[in-house]
Amino acid sequence: MTSSRTQHWSPKLRLTRTLALFVDDAGILRVGGRLSRSSLEFQRAHPALLPKDSYLTKIIIQSAREHLLHVGPRLAWIRQRFWIINGRNIIQRQLPKMLLDKASAFSV
What's the superkingdom here (predicted)? Predict the structure, then answer.
């Protein structure tokens, strides 16, 4: 038995409603919302949605870390173009791994 109440609390439906997701002309899933009425360029007003566990997401986080010289608000810099699902937690989880990788590269 499937009720509308059960469907309402489905994580996929909740995410779609919360972020006002849509597919652009290139087939990219993007975040909608009130920024569509702003003067921002399209990619900043509607960042591409990225899954939390993808390899591309990991590369983007590493790139942000290197671009910002290992300090600073990485999530804010990333969200200018991409919206990572559960982004804050993913970045916090990857930071210790990145530090360990760098430390092992310098060990003899």
Answer: Eukaryota
